[in-house]
């Protein structure tokens, strides 16, 4: 049988997913951060601040922020003096990030279009690898994790912020109803695009549960893996070390 992968609730050929995911993010790039505020009531800012505190970027470190698109994580880490490379497979998202950096007077970031599954960076080049709300959109998550492991030096750390499934009783049902029924309508109202935001919600539902994703991180070679649920697992910070 031919391989298929999930695109939301659909099963599609791997090459089709990459193209369709690219179209989703190209269509929402200009409104992406506005939509994040609308969909999370601004909570994504709190989650990202907490994520960066866990990463603990330090001056002089080489850090790869994968799927970094509009620069939200990189702008937070840049203040540390670390040397940040922002990578994304989608040039439209990178263009938005570059414009935002120029508006902020930030010229220390490196911007590089990259496929998370086939990075062009040399082995053991980075001290830390971060990816926030991006890994569920990768066609082959195992390949992306293997590449993260490859480009990290010994002692390097992997940090991933991603949506998961909240375990809080009652809240799960409320959030499911909100995300499936209201988020596409918000997307239509703000970004003029309901279908793209419907995919983003569906992609969260199809992403592996926290224990399964932690297992995948271990299988990629990382040690001392950890999962830190936020809001009962609505989002989670996953981490591991290359030792």
TrEMBL record:
<dbReference type="InterPro" id="IPR023576">
    <property type="entry name" value="UbiE/COQ5_MeTrFase_CS"/>
</dbReference>
<feature type="binding site">
    <location>
        <position position="70"/>
    </location>
    <ligand>
        <name>S-adenosyl-L-methionine</name>
    </ligand>
</feature>
<keyword id="KW-0474">Menaquinone biosynthesis</keyword>
<keyword id="KW-0830">Ubiquinone</keyword>
<keyword id="KW-0831">Ubiquinone biosynthesis</keyword>
<comment type="pathway">
    <text>Cofactor biosynthesis; ubiquinone biosynthesis.</text>
</comment>
<dbReference type="Pfam" id="PF01209">
    <property type="entry name" value="Ubie_methyltran"/>
</dbReference>
<comment type="similarity">
    <text>Belongs to the class I-like SAM-binding methyltransferase superfamily. MenG/UbiE family.</text>
</comment>
<dbReference type="GO" id="GO:0032259">
    <property type="term" value="P:methylation"/>
</dbReference>
<dbReference type="GO" id="GO:0008425">
    <property type="term" value="F:2-methoxy-6-polyprenyl-1,4-benzoquinol methyltransferase activity"/>
</dbReference>
<dbReference type="GO" id="GO:0043770">
    <property type="term" value="F:demethylmenaquinone methyltransferase activity"/>
</dbReference>
<keyword id="KW-0489">Methyltransferase</keyword>
<comment type="function">
    <text>Methyltransferase required for the conversion of demethylmenaquinol (DMKH2) to menaquinol (MKH2) and the conversion of 2-polyprenyl-6-methoxy-1,4-benzoquinol (DDMQH2) to 2-polyprenyl-3-methyl-6-methoxy-1,4-benzoquinol (DMQH2).</text>
</comment>
<feature type="binding site">
    <location>
        <begin position="115"/>
        <end position="116"/>
    </location>
    <ligand>
        <name>S-adenosyl-L-methionine</name>
    </ligand>
</feature>
<feature type="binding site">
    <location>
        <position position="88"/>
    </location>
    <ligand>
        <name>S-adenosyl-L-methionine</name>
    </ligand>
</feature>
<dbReference type="GO" id="GO:0009234">
    <property type="term" value="P:menaquinone biosynthetic process"/>
</dbReference>
<protein>
    <recommendedName>
        <fullName>Ubiquinone/menaquinone biosynthesis C-methyltransferase UbiE</fullName>
        <ecNumber>2.1.1.163</ecNumber>
        <ecNumber>2.1.1.201</ecNumber>
    </recommendedName>
</protein>
<dbReference type="InterPro" id="IPR004033">
    <property type="entry name" value="UbiE/COQ5_MeTrFase"/>
</dbReference>
<dbReference type="InterPro" id="IPR029063">
    <property type="entry name" value="SAM-dependent_MTases_sf"/>
</dbReference>
<keyword id="KW-0949">S-adenosyl-L-methionine</keyword>
<comment type="pathway">
    <text>Quinol/quinone metabolism; menaquinone biosynthesis; menaquinol from 1,4-dihydroxy-2-naphthoate: step 2/2.</text>
</comment>
<keyword id="KW-0808">Transferase</keyword>
<dbReference type="GO" id="GO:0009060">
    <property type="term" value="P:aerobic respiration"/>
</dbReference>
